[in-house]
Amino acid sequence: MLQLRDIHFSYPSRRPRETISGVSLEIHAGEMVALLGPNGSGKSTLLSLAIGALKPDRGEVLFDNQPLAGFSRREVAQRMAMVALQGDIRFPMTALEYVLTGRFAYTNAFGFDSPRDVEIAMQSLSDTDAAQFANRRFNQLSSGERQRVALARALAQQPRLLLLDEPTANADIAHQLSLLDLVQELTRERSLGALIVTHEINLAAEFADRVALIKDGRLAACGVTRDVITAELLSGLFETPLFVDRHPQSGAPRVFWMREPRKMVIKSNGN
Amino acid sequence: MPRNISTAKSNVFLFALAALLLFSGCAGGRTNVAKDEVGGNRRNFTDGIGRAVSITANPQRIISLAPNATEILFSLGLGDRIIGVTSYCDFPEAAKGKEKVGDTRYPNLERIISLKPDLVVVSTSSQLENMTRRLDQLAIPVYVTNPRAVREVVASIRSLGEVTGTASRAAEIAGEMESRINAVEQRVKDLPKPRVFYVLQTSPLITAGRNTFINDLINISGGRSISGDETADYPQFSRETVVARAPEVIVAPSSHGSEWVKESDLRRDFATTPAIRSNRIVWINPDLVDRPGPRIVEGLERLAEGLHPQKP
Amino acid sequence: MNVETLIERDSNQSFGGSVKSYLTRRRALIVILALLCALFGCAIAALATGSEHIGAGQLFPALISKLTGTASPLSREQDVIIFSLRLPRIGLAIGVGAALAIAGAAFQALLRNPLADPYVLGVSGGAALGSIIAIIFVSELSYSRPLFGFAGAAIVTLIVYRLGRREDDPAHLVLAGVVMSTFLSSVIVLLTAMADNVKLRNITLWLLGDLSSGAVEGLVFVIVAVAIGAAVLLTQSRALNLMMIGERDAFAIGVETARVRWVVHLTASLLTGAAVSAGGAVGYVGLVTPPLVRLAAGSDNRLLIPAAAIAGALMVLISDTIARTALSPRELPTGAITALIGAPVFIYLLLKSR
Fold first, then answer.
1. What is the pLDDT of residue A109?
2. Contacts of C14 in chain A (CB under 8 A)
3. Is C165 on the interface with A (CB under 8 A)?
């Protein structure tokens, strides 16, 4: 569905250093792909390139085998939706209004929201367990609650591909699990694709079908979860010793660490 | 302990204050001595705003800081003794050739000082109180004229004649002006007074109030200004009121101000007034009615002619 | 695809609870209709008010006679006063107020900053400088003033937008605008210092807002600008709603953000340029009326833009009526009155937003 072919990109202020140096990645319908990597490896940049907010210096982005550049913004929005961290909005807006903005790509410029739009918006809020916030002001919601509303907005776009930039960042563990559970359900039952940038290695290992490891703008590895989440690859990626065992119930790889015991230093009292 | 220190402190303060006063007094004294050395024969006058001024007889280096003062001084035959004028002083022709010391709003103090004048003439219409005070402090004699009405202009010419040692020439000019003013008054004495509207500019609409020259000129030339009760000198005025008060003559400045009094605007806004209907717009050179100088009688005569046209 | 049916405000949907927190067409119409009634009422009242007293009892028959073409009961002077002096001036006040309010709403949405306003941002100053340059150097062409005004406004908008685009700090933008504004004022003062005394007074008064000149070109230009500007911005209003959340989000949802920015920028400059060149720099309208409307009716630009336009027209109309009657027969600059009204209202808005 989504193809990134040999993408090269550098930010104008950081030229000639490339932020993305030759990344090729494919996301298919019905699969969840997690993108892991150290800070500054280019994860968020790759998402921006995927949605078309940034234009690659070399290489191309294809959706359904057609160049992304050939689509209008509306057409892109009907196919891909982005969920990212949401700060304060400077104007008073309710959660429902916020989610309704996701219907923009389907209405004409001046159109008021039809009952169907409202229905889709409310359904999306309900899916993300945020329907109780519909009439609350967005700015009054906690960070985790906003994430759910942001996901609801993405769902309201009725996309075929979800791009999620650290969607669990401020959620409590219960909501982290339910959010990723929902995304997985969507990929299974509605054949959505999902590309998730996250720092939560274990959640990625539990839920993702495939994992891509990125470092210094290059893919260090990409493949089925069990092949990529290995102690060797992860330790090399993060340059810190990491170990992998199996989750007792699902069998998914589970990452843990072992800390070096601190050397005790005994201070002498002048004796 | 503390009391001793504070007493010592206040002693020092008093001593410093005394020293300061002493030195400033000495400085003043020194300048006074210098004045006496230069001048010789000094006379004391009270100027147009009541200040006491001490000026040498027959000042030879005169600076004028207002166009009207320049005109008066030239008419008194002092052309050779004028060493500085403002950039707005454009009459008579000879004034344009004189050294410029700045404009009427911001004259250049350094230039004035370096010209070493023995008399500076200021007109209160320039509002140069600060400049006057600075020149005072530098012991440069400043004479301020302050005519508020047409006849006061005549009086100020006489005063300047006294001050500059040209009293007989001043008397001639004043006498001629007075007779011309009287002539106008005589002529219009029994004529009906038309309602007059004076327009300074049209966008926004500005007219003249009670204490202006033009108001005095209108009164003397046998008219009545429809804005003559306004206390402000140049208020922004309501067009509705002008229409309602139906002026019979409109007076407007020509030349310099012509871009600001658009005839088309006048004709459009005041189409129903008697003035526009009978096409009575009097265009008058603003220098003849704004400058309290010898030409004000010319302005008066032109205005009287406009308000009460004489049959040929 | 789009079924435009009306939705009752408090209807129960299948999810339980009411969905009344978004904009329906009906609510928009109600608010706009209410504001229009208020504006119409104020316009009639303004027509009956002025330095020359003409009673309401005479006014209505006169209006009717004008419409039906029969003889007017007014004297010729009264007729001129009401229809040639007051009516165009009321029209100009409404036009200028609407233009400035719409421009303010547009800037606030585009810059995501509730403090944005043509006056505060220096855009009015740019329009004023453009108009003054036109007055001093190109006064023969009758449309030179609004054209130069538009150019001045557009240039300043561009500069201020570049300078003040930091999303995390709204005050940064206002700072850029204030700096721009004071710089432009200095340039204007410089120009007026070089002009002679008569021009000086003219320019200074006009800088405070002056709606008294009966120039028809200015009125026409403003009305046309308001019509075009409002129409264009209404088509962009949904996109603006999204850009108010954030440009990145708007882009992801499908908005052509770059194009919207340019269109809104030019339109707001056109509106400001037209308003300032016709009526001088009237301030606080854009700063105060959109936030007030937002408090009452929400931030949705589809309602905000027309509603703010009417509210802005009301504000300037009332201010102008006060300006020409408070010290009758003298007139005050309209901008001074909008400031006297606007500043306390703005302080109230600031306190309320805490």
1. 61
2. 119
3. no
- Which residues in chain A have their CB less than 8 angstroms from residue C28's CB? 112
- B187 by Cβ neighbours in 10 Å (0-12 / 13-18 / 19+) ranks as middle
Do B147 and B243 belong together in one domain?
A: no
B211 and B92 belong to one structural domain: no
Cβ C330–B205 below 8 Å, yes or no?
no
Q: Which of C3, C245, C252 sits opposite A81 (nearest CB)?
A: C252
Q: Do chains C and A touch (3 or more CB pairs under 8 A)?
A: yes
Domain count, chain B: 2
Q: ipTM of the predicted structure? A: 0.79
Output the domain CATH number for residue B296. Answer: 3.40.50.1980
The answer to whether the pTM exceeds 0.80 is: no
B283 belongs to a structural domain: yes
- On whether residue B24 sits in a domain, the answer given is no
Q: Is A1-71+160-271 a CATH 3.40.190.10 domain?
A: no
| Residues B151 and B72 occupy one common structural domain | yes
Three-state secondary structure string covering A203-258: HHHHHCCEEEEEECCEEEEEEEHHHHCCHHHHHHHHCCCCEEEECCCCCCEEEECC
B38 pLDDT more than 50: no
Interfacial A residues in 112-171 facing C (CB < 8 Å): 112-116, 118-119, 122, 126, 131, 134-135, 153, 157
* Whole-Å CA distances, B261 to A8, A76, B186, B280: 67, 61, 32, 15
Q: What's the number of CA atoms in the CB half-sphere (13 Å) around residue B104?
A: 19
Q: Could you read off the pLDDT of B226-265 as tens digits, one per residue? A: 999 998 888 889 999 999 999 999 999 886 544 667 788 8
- Average pLDDT of the residues in B213-224: 93
State the pLDDT at residue B9. Answer: 58
Is residue B26 in a domain?
no
Q: How far is CA B15 from CA B9, B27, B95, B252, in A?
A: 10, 18, 53, 64
Low-confidence ranges of chain A (pLDDT < 70): 109-111, 267-271
A104 contact C CB<8A:
yes
User: What per-residue confidence (pLDDT) applies to C12?
Assistant: 29
**Average pLDDT, stretch C102-109?**
91
State the DSSP code for C80.
I
The share of chain B scoring above pLDDT 90, in percent, equals: 46
pLDDT digits (tens, 9 = 90+) for A37-76: 988 888 889 999 999 888 899 999 999 999 998 998 889 9
Say if residue C329 is preceded by a cis peptide, omega within 30 of 0.
yes
Q: Please say if the pLDDT value at position C195 is more than 70.
A: no
Asked if residue C321 is part of any domain, the answer here is yes
- Tell me how far apart the alpha carbons of residues A79 and C155 are, in angstroms, rounded to a whole number: 38
Residue of C nearest to A159 (CA): C253
